[in-house]
Amino acid sequence: MAFDIEMIEKVYANMAARVDIARELVGRPLTLSEKILYSHLWEGTPSQAFTRGKDYVDFAPDRVACQDATAQMALLQFMHAGKKTVAVPTTVHCDHLILAKNGAKQDLELANKQSKEVFDFLSSVSNKYGIGFWKPGSGIIHQIVLENYAFPGGLMIGTDSHTVNAGGLGMLAIGVGGADAVDVMSGMSWELKFPKLIGVKLTGKLSGWTAPKDVILKVADILTVKGGTGAIVEYFGEGAEAMSCTGKGTICNMGAEIGATTSTFGYDDSMRRYLAATGRQDVVNAADKVASYLTADADVYANPANYFDQLIEINLSELEPHINGPFTPDRGTPVSKMKEEAAANGWPLKVEWGLIGSCTNSSYEDMSRAASIVRQAVAHGITPKAEFGINPGSEQIRFTIERDGIIADFEKMGTKVFTNACGPCIGQWDREGADKQEKNTIVHSFNRNFSKRADGNPNTHAFVTSPEMVAALAISGRLDFNPITDTLINDKGEAVRLNAPFGDELPTKGFDVEDPGFQAPAEDGSSVQVVVSPTSDRLQLLEPFLPWDGKNITGAKLLIKAFGKCTTDHISMAGPWLRFRGHLDNISNNMLIGADNAFNRKTNSVKNQLTGAYDEVPKVQRAYKAAGVPSIVVGDHNYGEGSSREHAAMEPRFLGVKAVLVKSFARIHETNLKKQGMLALTFANEADYDKIQEDDTINFLDLTEFAPGKPLTLEFVHADGSKDIIMANHTYNDSQIGWFVAGSALNLIAAGKA
C-alpha cells in the first residue's frame, strides 16, 4: 500500500472538476503540465487563466522531500516557524553525508560515527514534527521518492535540484531552496512564476546501445545549461510510451542540467507496471479512474506546435549513444565522433574510473543493463583497464540486485560497491591520488561534471554517459572506444566485440528488501526534545536576519566580479564542506572560493579595498562586515546554476553582501536570494558588466522607491573619481519586496505576517 494514499485519492477527487474549469478559462486543450498546475492552485478552483512566463501564481504542493545536507538548514528554519507539525507529508533522506572510499559497510560505519550529531538532529526533528525519516544507507532521496512517494498528476517540491526525477512517474516535481520548503511545511502557499512549456516529441524506439540517458544528453546539447530556464519540459510520443518508468526518471532528472523548472511524462502503462512492482497497485487503481486527466488532451500531442512555446523532435531510432563533457553536461558528443573530438581537444584518452549510480541512473534496469556488459567481458576473458565503482539507488535496489546475482557479476570485475548514497556524484569521494591534481579522464552515469565536482581535482575530465556505456568505456580503458564498431582483445589474444546491452525493466522475481531504513515519526511529537549544542561545529541555531533600514545602500564595495560559469558549486562548494551545512558561520568560510575573479583570473583571491591587499574571498567579506561596510557581488550569465543549495544565498547574506548583480540568474538561486532578503538584480544592459572596475564603490540611488517593474539605479564610483550609472532590472513582486523589507521571508512567517 502506498504512503499517503488518502492524500493521493483527494488529489484525484478534485482534479477533473478543476481541470475542466481551467480548460474553459484558457479556452483551448491543455497540456499535462497545465492540468497539474491548474489543479494545484492555492485558491482551489481556478478563477482565471495565467500568462506563461509572466504571472506569479500561488500553488499548493502535495508533499515535500529534503536530503540531509539541505534538510539541516531547512529544519533549523522550520523550528523558527512555531508550528507543532508539518502541514503536508514531508520526508528527510540521509544520502549526502556518506563518503565513498573503502566500500559500503566501512563507509557507512564511518559516516554514522562522523555525522552522528547531524543524523541524530535530523532524526529527532523529524520525529517531533511528523516527518518521515530515511536513515543513512537507505538510499538516494530521488530513487526513494520514485519507489515510495511519487504519483501521476501530483505536485511536489524538494530541497534538491534533482527532485525533478519524480517526473518519471508523471508528477511535476520541482527543486527549491529550504526557505520555500519551510513555507509549504508551515501550511503556506508556494509561489512560482507560471512556467513556459517546451515540448519534446520522441518518435521511433530506443534500441541497441542507445539508452534513455542519451535522450537527455541530446536535449542538453540542444538547449544548453540555460535553455530550459523558466520552462517545464513535457515529453510525449510513441518513443516516450515505449520507455520504462525509471528511464523516464533519468530523463527528467537531468532536466535540472538545462535549467528547466521540471520535466514530466504523461501517465502510461510503464508507470502502471512500476507502481504495481513497487507495491502501489492502490495508486494505479485510483489513477486509472482519472487517466485522461493525467496526460495532455489529445489535440496537444497531435498538434504540439500550437500548444508549446518551443518544440523539439528526436527520432529515437536514429539517436546515437552520447558522451557529454568534459566540465559541463551540455557539451554533447555522439560516440562515433568521440575519437576525433578527443584528439582535437587534447582530452586524456585513458579512462581511469568508471562510476555507475547516482540519483540519475541507479535503478534495477540501469544495473542489469550495465551488468550484461560486465558478464560478457568476464565470459570472454577480458580484463577491465579502468577501476569500477557502483552506488545502488536504494537499499531495495541493492538487496534485489544482490539476490539476483548482479552485484556478484560486478564484483567479478573487481568493482567496488559503495553505499546506497550519492557518493562521488556530489564530491563525496575520497579518491586516491586526486590531491596530485594530475590530468585524467573518468566516465560516469551521473548528472553533473563541473570542474572538481567528483574528486576535487580541477584536471579531472569527467564525462557523462549511460551506465552501459560507462561499463564499456571502463572495460576498454579508452574514451574513444566505440562498442558498436570496435573490438577488445581478450586473454587469448582474440578480438571480441561486445553485444548490445540488455536487462530487465523490472525484476522478474519482484523487488525485495529486509530493512528499507524508514523511521516513522511519533504520533505526538510534542514531548520530543531537539538539542543543539552551543559548542557544536556542525550545527548552529539561526538568528533572524536584520530587516532593511528603509534607506539607500551607499558606500558598498565590490567583493568580486565573477567571470564566466559560476555555479552553486563555485559559490558554496560541496565535498568536504558538506559537514558544515548545518552551521551557517562555518559553512560561510567557503563562500565564492571557487569563483573566477575577472580581474586576476584567480580563484579565492580578491582585493580588500580597506587594505589594498589580496586575500581569500570569505576573509575579505568578513573584514567588510566587521567594518560595517556593505558589499555587492557581480556575475555573468546563468549565475547560480546547478544545485538548489540555499547556502549559496545564505552565506553572502550572513556575511553582509547586500546585492548580487548579474547578466542572468538560474531560477532556484534567484528565488533563494529573494527569500533571504537579498537584492537579486540583472543588468538592464549586459555590456555594463564590462564597466565594473576592481576598486568600485557602489551607491543605490533609488532603493527607497523599490517597486515591482521599476528598475533600480546604481552609481559605480571608480578609483579615479569617475562614475558610471548602471540600471538594474529585477523580477520582484509586492510580496517578494516584503521579504526584502522584513529581512527574509522567514521573518514574516515567524511574525505570523506571511
From TrEMBL:
At the top of the EC hierarchy, this enzyme's class is lyase
Key words, A-Z? Iron, Iron-sulfur, Lyase, Metal-binding, Transit peptide, Tricarboxylic acid cycle
Iron listed as a keyword: yes
One cellular component GO annotation, for this chain's record?
Answer: cytosol
Q: Which residues form the Aconitase A/isopropylmalate dehydratase small subunit swivel domain?
A: 558-686
SUPFAM superfamilies in the record: Aconitase iron-sulfur domain, LeuD/IlvD-like
Q: So what EC number does this one have?
A: 4.2.1.3
Q: What is this protein called?
A: Aconitate hydratase A
Native source organism of the sequence: Flavobacterium tibetense
